[in-house]
């Protein structure tokens, strides 16, 4: 059984000085509702128009009726962006707008020139050609019946097409819907769902193949899933630095340049002895050719091999940024290595404080003379333990801040890895929009590293502005999300 076309929601916009026409025309709107064309209708004074709420009604109302009088045209000019957007939606067929000429005014010379104009015979409501205003409204009523029926049928077709696309839930189905309804209220959702399907397939393929090419294909997609984009960028860096993969590839090539390359990346790797042995054999040879006859690009340098096809200027820029990333990572690891000893100082200092507090308290109690009050002895003990407790608390707070800085350094290493992947993807896809945010983020990381490098055990122990430091750490933690930029 065929479903009836959906009923519409209408709104009449009028000026408060045109109450008489509003009361007259509201009767016809009620008749249209009784006839089954309208689900409901509302009346809105333009002088009391709330811009924010009116924007919310755009998607809720199917048909806007404008009582075109001098006062309404004044409001039309005063709220030009609002009404311009309304007429744009009419042109995009998201909704319908009808201008009802109440007086001999030229609405066709305004932004309303491309909307529906009523009465459809070109005579305004108060024209002498009508026997009475009711005759004009009656003409408008029959015209609206025709327009309402057409729009109800179109809306029914739209809803049916959207339901069909949602049921199929395929990129092809959404593309068919978007081709037929490129500007409907569902178009953005259709595009998002279509992109989500493609994004899901690319992510599934990347996790299945676990190759640089698969993760790069995901990275250059239109995905808005920041968490997966970040993970894909990190996976690229991990594959590029996978010693096992590099060694398997190097062993298959059997050329000296590949062994030297492997040694450069993994100088103290688990295959160090075998690499050194093969290099020693090559060095015994009398002649080493520039390159082998059968060259195969290293698997873990897939993105850099693609970058060779970039213009010289772009390739130079990319390599400059990547060199900076490499040096920054080296700096991070150096700072983390230098701070390892400070970690044990907090435990040693805590132990010394406990022993010192215990010894001082015993000394205070034992030093009491025979004629002294017991209260004085107890006060000494309390003061000694209180002072030792205060130092322990300061040591505990200092350790918390030290640990947070360690987390920042650790997370920054992965952030730089992701940044290098994002930079390469940006150059290879000719998308410069992410270059500046990435470089800004790298500069922020460098500033953090230099700031943390200056801190030692005593700095954490004696720093006084604890609330300010906590706020700074919170801000730095937020700044570490590269792809949110």
Question: What report would you give on this structure?
Answer:
Helix 1 (19-34) links the parallel strand 1 and strand 2 (38-45). 67% of the residues lie in helices and 6% in strands. It is elongated and about 110 Å long. The chain has four domains: 8-164, Rossmann fold, CATH 3.40.50.2300; 186-237, no CATH class; 242-309, no CATH class; 331-484. It is α/β, with parallel strands linked by helices and 485 residues long.
Q: What count of domains describes the coordinates?
A: 4
From the spread of the alpha carbons, the general shape counts as: elongated
CATH hierarchy class name of the largest domain: Alpha Beta
Q: What's the count of strands?
A: 5
The helix fraction, in percent, is: 55-70%
Please count the helical segments: 19
**Computed CA radius of gyration, to the nearest angstrom:** 37 Å
Give the class from helix and strand content and strand pairing.
alpha/beta
Share of residues in strands: 5-15%
The averaged pLDDT comes out at 85
Q: What is the assigned CATH homologous superfamily of the largest domain? A: Response regulator
* Main sheet: strands, sense, barrel: 5 strands, parallel
- Taking the alpha carbons of the first and last residues, their distance comes to 52 Å
Please give the CATH architecture of the largest domain: 3-Layer(aba) Sandwich
Strand order of the largest sheet: 2-1-3-4-5
Uncertain runs = 368-373, 464-485
**Would you tell me which CATH topology of the largest domain applies?**
Rossmann fold
């Amino acid at each position: 059984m065929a479903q009836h076309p959906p009923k519409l929601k209408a709104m009449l916009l009028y000026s408060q000085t045109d109450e008489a026409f509003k009361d007259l025309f509201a009767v016809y709107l009620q008749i249209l509702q009784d006839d089954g064309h309208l689900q409901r209708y509302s009346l809105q004074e333009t002088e009391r128009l709330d811009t924010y709420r009116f924007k919310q009604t755009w998607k809720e109302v199917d048909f806007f009726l404008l009582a075109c009088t001098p006062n309404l045209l004044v409001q039309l000019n005063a709220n030009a962006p609002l009404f311009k957007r309304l007429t744009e939606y009419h042109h995009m067929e998201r909704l319908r707008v009808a201008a009802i000429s109440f007086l001999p005014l030229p609405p066709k010379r305004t932004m309303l020139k491309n909307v529906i104009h009523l009465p459809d015979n070109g005579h305004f409501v108060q024209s002498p050609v009508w026997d009475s205003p009711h005759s004009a409204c009656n003409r408008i009523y029959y015209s609206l019946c025709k327009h309402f029926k057409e729009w109800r049928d179109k809306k029914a077709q739209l809803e049916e097409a959207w339901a069909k696309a949602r049921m199929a839930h395929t990129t092809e189905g959404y593309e068919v819907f978007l081709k037929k309804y490129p500007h409907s209220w569902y178009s953005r959702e259709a595009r998002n769902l279509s992109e989500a399907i493609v994004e899901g397939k690319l992510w599934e393929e990347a996790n299945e193949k676990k190759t640089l090419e698969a993760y790069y294909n995901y990275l250059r997609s239109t995905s808005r899933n920041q968490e997966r984009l970040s993970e894909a960028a990190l996976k690229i860096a991990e594959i590029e630095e996978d010693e096992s993969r590099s060694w398997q590839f190097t062993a298959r090539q059997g050329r000296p340049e590949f062994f030297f390359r492997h040694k450069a990346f993994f100088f103290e790797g688990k295959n160090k002895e075998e690499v050194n042995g093969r290099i020693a054999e090559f060095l015994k040879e009398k002649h080493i050719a520039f390159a082998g006859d059968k060259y195969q690009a290293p698997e873990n340098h897939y993105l850099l091999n693609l970058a060779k096809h970039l213009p010289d200027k772009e390739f130079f820029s990319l390599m400059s940024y990547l060199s900076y990333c490499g040096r920054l990572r080296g700096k991070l690891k150096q700072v983390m290595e230098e701070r390892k000893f400070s970690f044990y100082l907090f435990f040693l200092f805590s132990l010394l404080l406990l022993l010192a507090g215990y010894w001082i308290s015993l000394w205070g109690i034992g030093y009491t003379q025979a004629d002294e009050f017991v209260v004085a002895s107890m006060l000494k003990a309390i003061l000694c333990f209180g002072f030792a407790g205060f130092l322990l608390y300061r040591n505990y707070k200092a350790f918390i801040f030290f640990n947070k800085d360690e987390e920042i350094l650790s997370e920054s290493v992965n952030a730089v890895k992701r940044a290098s992947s994002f930079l390469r993807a940006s150059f290879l896809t000719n998308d410069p929009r992410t270059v500046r945010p990435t470089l800004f983020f790298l500069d922020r990381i460098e500033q953090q590293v230099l700031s943390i490098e200056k801190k030692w055990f005593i700095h954490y122990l004696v720093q006084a502005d604890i609330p300010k430091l906590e706020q700074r750490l919170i801000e730095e933690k937020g700044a570490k999300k590269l792809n949110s930029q």
